[in-house]
Amino acid sequence: MSENGVTLALRSVSKKFDEFVAVDDLSLEVRAGRIFGLIGPNGAGKTTTIRMIVNILAPDSGRIELFGELMSERLQDRIGYLPEERGLYKKMRVGEQLRYFGELKGLTAREAETRLDRWLERLKLSEWKTHKTDELSKGMQQKIQFIATVMHEPDLLILDEVFSGLDPVNAELMKDVLLELKAEHRTIIFSTHMMSQAEELCDDICLINRSRKVLEGSLREVKSSFGRRAVALRAEGGDAVLKDARLVAGVKSYGDYVEVVLAEEADAQELLRRLVEGGARVTRFEQVEPSLHDIFLQKVGESA
Amino acid sequence: MKKLLVIIRREYLGRLRTKGFVISSVLGPLIMIGFTVVPGLLITMQTSSATKVAVVDLTGKMYEGVRESILTSRDEEGDRREGGRKNEPAQPAVVKPGGEAQLQQAVQSLSAQYEVEQVATGGRPVEEIKNELNARVRRGELGVYLVLPEKILEEGRAEYYGRNVSDPITTSQLRHSLNRAVIEQRLREANIDQNRVRQLSKNIVLETTKVSEGGLERDSGGGFALAMFVGLFIYMAILMYGQVILSSVVEEKTTRVSEVLFSSVKPFHLMLGKLAGVALVAITQYALWAVAFGAFALYGVGMLSARGMDVPLPRLPFSFVLYALVFFVLGFLMYATIYLIVAAMVTTEKEASQMAMPVIFLSVVSIYLAFPVIRNPNSSFSFWVSIAPFFSPITMLVRIVTETPPFWQIALSLVVGMASVVFFVWLAARVYRVGMLMYGKSASLPEVLRWLKQS
């Protein structure tokens, strides 16, 4: 299924609408069995990129390769796409609707029927099967849409803001399902602007802004390459130490702890030693990585 | 290909189950049957109480004639029609005279029953008699009274008094009856044999025969009504199913289902599936109506005429039923693709109905064009109009009904129609593909032209 480990590759893909450049020379690789976060501010070109991946739009230039083949209509059956804007027929019954979407992905009516029953049960919606879609709450419709995306067991899933409209219980349920799918070695492209979600789920990320790629790599690499070191500190006393500019570049206060950004060349060990020597009572001292949120803000700020 | 069938099946079966389809399937034949049966019902219906007519005869010699004339007028009309029928042994092959005569007869029977009484003058002044009669009219004891002046034979004037003088049927019938009575009286006084006069002044019956490709066909003018009926019927069906296409495409766009669908199937397949599915619904409806009407023609008419009701049923050759079906489908496809383009351009149902106005206008125009075509089916105007796309489905059918054109013209009209359907499907596919993914605002015409270049 995964030819040399790469499920999807974009090579120098560009797309223009009239004079507006939506995607500019974008290259990226999505590896099999991983969750890939496609992040970026509104209008960055995420939706256009996704539409090209699912073969709704054709790129003006560049290549899109899926499973080692050039993207084609035939490969669409191996993709599941959950668009940001939900699309369900309001007056159709849930069961019929799912069967229709399944058949459009190449399932037979019978296959679709057994799979949708299984999924409705898994997501606790079985009793809604014969109801019309517009009788369902927004969160339930969201889950129906999700079933339509996964019921044909696609090798590549593209989920655009999959958690929107879900309460915490259902969001947790959805997260479990995603991790299960990942364990089945399916590849997931996850698009969001909720950085905390991306941070929690993604193995790799790609940040695009103003139709260009800004940042790419595994979450770990991205974070460690991001040259900012900080310490979460909760202590009584030692205020003088934190004012030493040779050690500390800045202090941000978060409720019951402060985040201390270390100065260049400074060592966290040195800071701890000085604090203890200065008589401070340290109850928390933890080296922290920059959050994806911070990286996002800084990178988008830089490229603006 | 398999997916295309899945789409067609959903569009088709999904729509057959809607209330709208069930209702129009039942209502359609009921309305058609109603149009043919109601005049018959009116005829057999007994009218309300007879109109009381009082006659003030100042000449002293006219009353009997007038009474006779008023009471027999209805029977005589009937006799004349019967006579006409006898001269016309074969039923017209194509079309029986429409319901017009039938309707007249029905209307007549509603009001043609009179009771006549003579008012004794007893030498009283006319004014006094009138006052007395006026009072009776006001009390509702009397419907109408006629005053026949002494010099009625020379001057030809009589007076009509009644509560309702604007009822044209009663006044004209009484005028006719009076007229006849006065003329007969004059003839009598001039010693002329009335029977001889009646014989000599007998009306002629004009037999109309249609000369067409297939030979001679008897037609008594009902073709006009039938042509108009067929034209309007197709027009309504096209509008109805065009609207179905419009709202279903707009729904897919506003609910963003199209984005999900496009990630599974080609937009072109989706569009074709929709057109084909709805066309099949339209054909199914057409077939249901045809079967219902056929069943009515076979059994219903027999039953009704057994009960003494004459139902004027249009008789159509089978070829016409086929032509109507073919042009109906062609017309549907022409308009449906335009509706589809409109739907892909707009973002709300409301805008859609505004933008659809020109399309509706186009179909209204073809109904108006049908009038000159009916009056002159073989003019060059009729020729061009029945070849032109968008007009041909209605105008060519009207021509086929009224004066079937040579086959090459029908074929040409079909070829031009199909070519334009292919062109508009091509055009619609391009607009549809881009438009269905454009949210936010309706597209302007220049934008749509850019989309065409884009794809």
Descriptive labels:
heterodimer; A: 304 residues; alpha/beta; Alpha-Beta Plaits; six-stranded mixed β-sheet; 10 helices; B: 455 residues; D-Maltodextrin-Binding Protein, domain 2; four-stranded mixed β-sheet; two-stranded antiparallel ribbon; 18 helices; 6 strands
In short:
The complex is a heterodimer of chains A (304) and B (455). Chain A is of the alpha/beta class and 304 residues long.
Report on this model:
- The complex is a heterodimer of chains A (304) and B (455).
- Chain A is α/β, with parallel strands linked by helices.
- Chain A contains ten helices and 14 strands.
- A six-stranded mixed β-sheet of chain A has the order 6-7-8-3-9-10, with helices on both faces. In chain A, strands 2-1-4-5 form a four-stranded antiparallel β-sheet, covered by helices on one side.
- Chain B has two domains: 2-37 and 222-454, no CATH class; 47-210, Periplasmic binding protein-like II (D-Maltodextrin-Binding Protein, domain 2), CATH 3.40.190.
- Chain B is built from 18 helices and six strands.
- Chain B has helices at 2-16, 19-44, 63-86, 99-111, 126-139, 152-155, 168-189, 194-200, 223-254, 257-262, 267-306, 318-345, 349-355, 357-375, 380-387, 392-403, 407-435, 445-454, and strands spanning 51-57, 114-118, 144-148, 159-162, 209-212, 215-218.
- In chain B, strands 2-1-3-4 form a four-stranded mixed β-sheet, sandwiched between helices.
- In chain B, helix 1 runs parallel beside helix 11.
- The two termini of chain B are 22 Å apart.
- The interface between A and B is medium-sized, with 28 and 24 residues.
Biggest sheet of chain B, strands in spatial order? 2-1-3-4
N-to-C CA distance of chain B: 22 Å
| Overall form of chain A | globular
H-E order of chain B: HHEHHEHEHEHHEEHHHHHHHHHH
Q: Could you give the order of strands across the largest sheet of chain A?
A: 6-7-8-3-9-10
The helix count of chain B comes to 18
Discrete helix count of chain A: 10
Uncertain residue ranges of chain A:
none
Strand content of chain B: 5-15%
Q: Which sheet architecture does the biggest sheet of chain A show? A: 6 strands, mixed
CATH superfamily label of the largest domain in chain A:
P-loop containing nucleotide triphosphate hydrolases
CATH architecture of the largest domain in chain A: 3-Layer(aba) Sandwich
Structural class of chain B: alpha/beta
What is the top-level CATH class of the largest domain in chain A? Alpha Beta
Mean pLDDT of chain A: 88
Here the CATH topology of the largest domain in chain A equals Rossmann fold
- As a whole number of angstroms, the C-alpha radius of gyration of chain A is 23 Å
Number of domains of chain B: 2
Radius of gyration of chain B: 31 Å
